[in-house]
Amino acid sequence: MFIVNERTLLGGLTGAQRYLLELNKRLDLGFRRVSPKVNGKGMLGHFWEQTVLPFSVGKKDILWSPSNTGPIYCRNQVLTLHDIAPIDHPEWFGKQFSTWFNFIVPPLVRNVHKIITVSSFSRARIADACGVESEKIEVIYNGVDNRFGMCSDEDVFDVGARYGCKYKRYLLTVGSIEPRKNLARLLKAWSLVQSKLDDDMLLVVVGGVGNTKIFNEVDLPDDIPNVKFVGRVPDDVLPALYQGARGFAYLSVYEGFGLPVLEAMASGIPVLTSDKTVLMEIMGDAGIAVDPYSLDAIGEGLRTLCDDTASVSAFENAGKVRAQDFSWDIAAKKTADVLVQSQQELS
C-alpha cells in the first residue's frame, strides 16, 4: 500500500502545499492519506511525524513524505526534499526551526530509500550537504497549472480593479516576505529608478509575512513611492494578477525551484529574476537574469520591463514556449514511477 504524509496541508498555501495538491489531483495509486488529527503545525507536527506516523506504515507499505521531512527511522519511505535552505543558510530562519531541520534532515536523507527533488541544483546541494550519492536522488521538475495564461479579458480587468492595478501599468512580485526572497533590495532598486519611470507605473507586492516560527523577520524600507502591498490573495485570482501585469520581478537569492517564475512565464509576461541558484535552470534564456545583490543591475532590469517594448514582447513569447517544458502531468507520472519502483525494490 502507498501512504502519503499530508501533514503539510494543515499549513497555509505555499509552494510545497501547491506541489502536493497538484500531484494529488493526478496520482492514482490508491493512497491512504494520513495527517495529525489535532494540531499538525510546528513542533507538535514534527513530534507526530516522528512518533505517531511510523506506526501507520506497515513493512510492505511505501510512505511518501512530500514536504521536506518525514519519520527518520522509516526506511521504506520516499522523501520529496524541495531544498535545503535551512542547512545552507540557517541565518535566514528562526533558531529552533533551523536547529531542528539541521538535526533531522541529513540522517533522514541517508536513511530513506529514495529522494525526489525539484531541480538539479537541489540534487547537487542535497548530495553534498547530506553525504549521499546523487543516484539516490531523482530530479522531477514541478509543473504549472493550465489556469495561468488562460484568463478572459473580463477577469483580468475585474481582478485588477479589485486591487487597484491598471492593466499593464504594474510590475508584479509574488512570494512570502522572508529573507531569501530579497524583497528589501528589490524595493530599494525600485526607489532608485522612480525618476526614470512613468508616474503611474506601480510595483505590486503579493504575499504575506512568512511564518515567524520558521523565518527571521525582514526589515523593509519605508515610504517607497508607487508600491502597493496587497498581502495574501485568494489562489483563484493569482492568474489574472499575473496576466494583467507588465512584467514580473523575482529576485530571490535562494530557491529549490522558483514556481512563481514558471507561473509568470506561462502567463505570458516577461520575467526579471536572479542569476543565482536554480532560477536560471528554470527560466533558461527566456527572460532577464541579473545579479540579485546589485541595486544597479536590478534597477536596469526593472527599467527594461517598464520601457523596452521590443524586449518585453520577445520575452513574453519566449517565456510561454519555455513554460511548456514543465507539466504537472509529467511530474505525477514520474513520481508514480519512483514510488512503484521503490515498492518493487523493497519487496
From TrEMBL:
Q: Which InterPro entries match?
A: Glyco_trans_1, Glyco_trans_4-like_N
- Coiled-coil intervals in this record? none
Q: Name one GO biological process term.
A: lipopolysaccharide biosynthetic process
* UniProt entry tagged with the keyword Transferase: yes
Q: Where is the Glycosyltransferase subfamily 4-like N-terminal domain?
A: 76-145
Q: Which intervals hold domain Glycosyl transferase family?
A: 168-320
Q: What single Pfam family name could you report for this chain, choosing any that match?
A: Glycos_transf_1
Q: What keywords appear on the UniProt entry? A: Transferase
Q: Which domain of life is it from?
A: Bacteria
Q: Which Gene3D superfamilies would you find in this protein's record?
A: Glycogen Phosphorylase B
Could you tell me one molecular function GO term of this UniProt entry?
glycosyltransferase activity
Q: In its UniProt entry, what is this protein called?
A: Glycosyl transferase family 4
